[in-house]
Recover the amino acids of this structure.
């Protein structure tokens, strides 16, 4: 067994050595360096394109998906080895993709055989970029109140209404979307999960500017959009189960934002460098106490994620606890940026201009305010903890 | 090491939970308090706990111990926090035993540890000289006289001093610039001439004592750790103690929280269980998370002791501060959410906040450890 894994490790190492371009062996400098793939993606370099092609062909953009759909077919131990070997040479992810992180797992669980064969391979190769159509202007925290009607017209549906907060709606090739297929049923029971090409006639996309400036978020409007019936996933009117499955998944991803990125300086170190110390302690005793309280929680949270991962490995399922992780991780991240702004004093106010670094800190700080809203607000997460973990009534 | 309990550890925890739940639930503490038992704990129960090996968990096998490690002892302490069972676990099985184990004094270990392991001998750590936790402030003097040292000074807030057979005492053997230098630890028998003792019953029905050392002669052979080098030993003992106290506070927080959530489901006002109100639901959900954080921190800190990791000081302060804050929140919310009945002595929930108050203060409160955490992190 372990001998097999050792052989596997050697194979992975050799393959990466041969196939990972030198340029791709350094961490992303910014989000702009990420490769998202898709029809209209402009590769930054030949290396980026080659890296995606090779990883896609190998199935290692989706290493633990079944090989029959083009995935890597790796088991948990093998996946760990691949991640370790990629980290060892600082290899970048070849593809950042909602198709892989969000839609794929839902299709594998709920999709028909034909849908898996049709949609999974282009996701793995990075040929089709997906966006998510969930929230609506009147369906935020009350997501199940979504109204966008998809009316049955025999061999297809016709979709109207609109979606909001669609990340990268302006660069997505296809959308996975929650629509209302039964307006008379109780709200959770008339929702279906559909897929469609964003080039279908009747779709209009409008980017949203946030308090932090430009954003990937868009509004998407539908006017009599035709959706073929074979693009509806799972059972008709049972889309809410798929939605919940994906939301849990999304929360877990968002909650990791509470972890400080490895390699970056801690808030305390940043403060010591910026503000200075006297007799070894920060020269601002009240700020120091605030930072210490934050770092106490930050360290406790990192250990709790470590414990949760170990428990999952030991076979305990995370379940509704992911809601608490989402709540606490995002609240921590907001605190982190509040403190970083406090520490930076008047320098933190810069927005544009020569020495402004494009207002990065101020914009990042403002952007964190959305962390506890997107993917379900903090208040909704606390509701879920109260009901589903503590069993409180109501 | 994975941050989960292994099967053996789970068995120990379950055994502790069963024993304490059956033999010493909260009514046991109430009975001890109301009947005014002088020790503040049941010596018979302590003998039973010792029979199960709880006094011997961290003691090496060659001194009659189980050598099972701090993670095991921490689990027992956590469970004892749920039932608030008073016993010399902290004074003797944790602090006293740790000091002797770290002393490097083989003769002393051979003389004392086997009887500590059986629960027959009790120990107490005597290092505080003021009401604030300042372990490096040592004014008690130790003056060499032939083969002996002559100790003069006083100590206070000594956990279980009233039943201790011997005290581990800090005294200054050399004075200099750095207060951390020149301190030594001595083992002083309770009946040594010149030792006088006064005991106070605390709000949680535990006891602490003050001792006066008036020309007490102790032989050089009674040094616990190196001459002049007592501070590093004391620091290590204190860090291990802090993690143990954090484990007990975690148990307190868990139990208070469980009882409070149950009450939210039962108590009806306005015709509905009060648990339907979001103002209470969100506070309960937040408390749930704080306790989850404490579980991770305590387990990591206990494992760090057993691995002899360099991270122990940081983790000890993290655990003591975080569990102190969380148990404070849990016990205060416990009373508030129980409403009027939570304020009555007849109802049990108020016992938890009293015990929290003592544990939070001992070996440095949350604020002390927040400050130390920041120092250790370099700011």
């Amino acid at each position: 067994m372990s001998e097999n894994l050792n052989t596997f490790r050697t194979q992975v190492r050799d393959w990466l050595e041969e196939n990972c371009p030198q340029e791709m062996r350094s961490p992303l400098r910014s989000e702009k360096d990420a490769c998202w793939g898709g029809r209209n993606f402009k590769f930054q370099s030949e290396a980026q394109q080659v890296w995606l092609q090779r990883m896609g062909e190998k199935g290692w953009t989706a290493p633990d998906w079944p090989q029959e759909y083009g995935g890597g077919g790796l088991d948990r131990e093998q996946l760990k080895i691949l991640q370790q070997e990629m980290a060892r040479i600082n290899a970048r992810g070849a593809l950042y993709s909602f198709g892989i992180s969000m839609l794929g797992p839902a299709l594998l669980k709920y999709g028909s055989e034909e849908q898996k064969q049709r949609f999974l391979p282009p996701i793995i190769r990075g040929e089709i970029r997906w966006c998510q159509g969930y929230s609506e202007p009147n369906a935020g925290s009350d997501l199940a109140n979504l109204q966008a009607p998809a009316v049955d017209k025999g061999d297809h549906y016709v979709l109207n209404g609109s979606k909001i907060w669609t990340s990268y709606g302006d660069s997505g090739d296809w959308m996975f979307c929650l629509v209302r297929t039964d307006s008379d049923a109780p709200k959770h029971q008339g929702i279906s999960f559909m897929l469609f090409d964003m080039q279908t006639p009747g779709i209009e996309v409008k980017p949203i500017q946030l308090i932090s400036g430009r954003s990937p978020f868009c509004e998407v409007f539908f006017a009599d959009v035709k959706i073929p019936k074979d693009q509806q996933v799972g059972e008709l009117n049972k889309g809410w189960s798929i939605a919940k499955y994906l939301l849990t998944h999304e929360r877990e991803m968002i909650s990791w934002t509470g972890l400080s990125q490895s390699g970056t300086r801690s808030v305390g170190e940043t403060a010591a460098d910026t503000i200075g110390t006297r007799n070894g302690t920060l020269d601002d005793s009240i700020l120091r106490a605030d930072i210490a309280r934050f770092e106490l929680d930050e360290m406790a949270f990192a250990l709790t994620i470590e414990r949760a991962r170990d428990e999952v490995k030991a076979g305990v399922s995370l379940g509704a606890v992911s809601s608490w992780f989402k709540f606490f991780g995002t609240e921590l991240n907001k605190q982190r940026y509040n403190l970083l702004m406090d520490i930076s004093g008047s320098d933190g106010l810069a927005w544009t201009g020569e020495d402004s670094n494009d207002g990065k800190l101020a914009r990042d700080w403002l952007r964190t305010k959305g962390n506890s809203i997107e993917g379900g607000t903090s208040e909704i997460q606390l509701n879920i903890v109260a009901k589903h973990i503590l069993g409180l009534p109501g | 090491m994975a941050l989960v309990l292994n099967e053996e550890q789970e068995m120990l925890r379950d055994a502790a939970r069963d024993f304490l739940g059956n033999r010493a639930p909260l009514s046991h503490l109430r009975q001890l308090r109301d009947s005014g038992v002088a020790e503040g704990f049941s010596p018979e129960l302590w003998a039973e706990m010792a029979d199960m090996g709880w006094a011997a968990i961290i003691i090496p096998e060659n001194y009659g111990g189980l050598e099972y490690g701090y993670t095991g002892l921490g689990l027992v302490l956590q469970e004892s926090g749920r039932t608030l069972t008073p016993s010399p676990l902290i004074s003797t099985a944790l602090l006293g035993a740790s000091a002797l184990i770290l002393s490097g004094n083989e003769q002393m270990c051979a003389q004392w540890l086997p009887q500590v392991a059986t629960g027959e001998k009790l120990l107490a750590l005597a290092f505080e000289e003021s009401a604030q936790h300042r372990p490096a402030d040592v004014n008690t003097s130790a003056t060499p006289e032939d083969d002996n040292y002559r100790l003069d000074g006083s100590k206070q807030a000594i956990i279980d001093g009233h039943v201790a057979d011997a005290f581990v005492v800090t005294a200054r053997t050399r004075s200099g610039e750095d207060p951390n230098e020149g301190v030594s630890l001595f083992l002083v028998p309770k009946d040594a001439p010149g030792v006088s003792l006064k005991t106070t019953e605390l709000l949680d029905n535990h006891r602490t004592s003050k001792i006066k050392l008036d020309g007490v002669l102790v032989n050089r052979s009674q040094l616990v750790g190196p001459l002049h080098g007592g501070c590093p030993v004391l620091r290590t003992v204190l860090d291990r103690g802090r993690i143990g106290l954090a484990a007990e506070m975690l148990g307190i927080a868990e139990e208070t929280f469980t009882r409070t959530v149950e009450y939210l489901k039962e108590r009806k006002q306005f015709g509905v269980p009060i648990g339907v109100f979001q103002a209470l639901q969100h506070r309960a959900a937040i408390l749930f998370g704080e306790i989850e954080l404490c579980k991770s921190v305590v387990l990591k800190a206990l494992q760090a002791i057993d691995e002899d990791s360099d991270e122990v000081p940081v983790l000890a302060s993290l655990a003591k501060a975080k569990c102190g804050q969380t148990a404070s929140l849990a016990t205060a919310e416990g009373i508030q959410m129980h409403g009027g009945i939570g304020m009555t002595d007849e109802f049990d929930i108020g016992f938890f906040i009293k015990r929290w108050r003592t544990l939070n203060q001992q070996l440095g409160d949350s604020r002390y450890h927040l400050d130390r955490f920041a120092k250790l992190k370099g700011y």
User: Anything to note?
Assistant: Strands of chain B lie at 123-126, 141-145, 148-159, 166-172, 183-189, 195-201, 207-219, 268-269, 272-273.
